[in-house]
Amino acid sequence: MSQAPFAVTLVTLFPDMARAVTDFGVTRRAVENGLLALETVNPRDFTEDRHRTVDDRPFGGGPGMVMKVAPLEKALLAAREGNPGARVIYLSPQGQPLTQAKAVALAAQPGLVLLAGRYEGVDERLLDAQVDEQVSIGDYVLSGGELPALVLIDAVSRLLPGVLGHQDSAEQDSFSGEFEDLLDCPHYTRPEVYQGQAVPEVLLSGNHERIRRWRLKQALGRTWQQRPDLLERRRARGLSNEEQQLLDEYIAEQSS
Ligand SMILES: NC(=O)c1ccc(NC2CCCC2)nc1
C-alpha cells in the first residue's frame, strides 16, 4: 500500500535550485515514485509593487539588504496552505546543527516548509511569527539558505520508507543502527586487485559474521582516529564488550 508522499515546500527566490533534488539520483527516483513531493514558492510572486521588491535597506544601517516581511509572510502562508501541519524551518548559521538524529526527527514530521534566506537575512519579525525552528548545516556562512535546504531534504529523503533500494542500507549507514554515531567503514568493489592494491580478504570470505565484525572494527577505529568526539558520544551510551574488544584490537594494530 503506497503511502502519501512526504511533502516539502521550499520558499526561495531561486526555485530552479530545487532541480538539484528533483532531477538527480535517489531523490529524483523518490519523487518519481511518489515518496517525496517538492514544491517551491517564490516570495517575489507575492510582491505588490512594480519592481517586485523583496528586500530593503537595514534599519540601523550597515552593509547589504534585508528580506522584507510582507512578501515572505504571504509566501510562507501559501506554502503552509499547500502543506498543512508542516514544520516551518529557517536555514541559518544561528540554527541548531543538522545531525542524523535531527534528520530522523524531521522525517517523522507531517511535512516540511523550508525558508531559504538571501542577502543579509530576513526581518526578525517574520522569524518570530512564522518559523518553528532554525537549522544550520555547519558553522560557515553561505550566500543563501537554498543549498542548506537541499542538504536537509537529501538527508531526510533517504530515511523515508522505500526510498533506498535496500531499506537496511539506511540502517547500515554510519550514524544509524549498529553504526550509530560512527564513521563509515571502507567500501570496495571489483576488481579484487587494482594497481597491486588488494581488497581485504575478509570481504571475499563470504563469512558474514567475520565481515560484520571487520566492518564494525573499521568503523570504531576510524571514528577513534578521525572523530574522537563522536566516539565519546558512543562511549557515553556504552560500548558493548565486542565493540570495546574490536576497538582495542584496532588501536593495538595502529601502534604495532
Ligand atoms: N550554515 C548554514 O546552514 C547556513 C544557512 C544559511 C546561510 N545563509 C543565508 C542565511 C540568510 C541569508 C543567507 N548560511 C549558512
Distinct small molecules: 6-(cyclopentylamino)pyridine-3-carboxamide
Mean pLDDT: 95
Structural class: alpha/beta
Oligomer: single chain
Low-confidence stretches: none
User: Whole-Å distance between the termini?
Assistant: 55 Å
Q: Could you estimate the helical fraction of the residues in percent?
A: 25-40%
The number of helical elements comes to 10
Strand order of the largest sheet: 2-1-6-5-7
Run of helices and strands? EHHEEEHEHEHEHHEEHHH
Binned strand content:
15-25%
EC number: 2.1.1.228
Protein name: tRNA (guanine-N(1)-)-methyltransferase
GO cellular component, one term: cytosol
Subunit structure: Homodimer.
How would you concisely characterize the structure shown here?
This protein has 256 residues and is an alpha/beta fold. The protein has helices spanning 19-22, 25-32, 69-81, 100-107, 124-130, 146-157, 167-172, 208-226, 228-236, 241-255, and strands at residues 6-11, 36-41, 55-56, 66-67, 87-97, 111-115, 133-136, 193-194, 197-198. The radius of gyration is 22 Å and the shape is elongated.
Plain-language structure description:
The protein is 39% helix and 16% strand. The protein is built from ten helices and nine strands. The chain has a five-stranded parallel sheet with strand order 2-1-6-5-7. A two-stranded antiparallel ribbon has the order 3-4. It has a two-stranded antiparallel ribbon with strand order 8-9. Helix 3 runs parallel beside helix 5. The mean pLDDT is 95. Bound molecules: 6-(cyclopentylamino)pyridine-3-carboxamide. Residues 91-93, 117-118, 121, 136-138, 140-142, 144-145, 148 line the site of 6-(cyclopentylamino)pyridine-3-carboxamide (4GO).
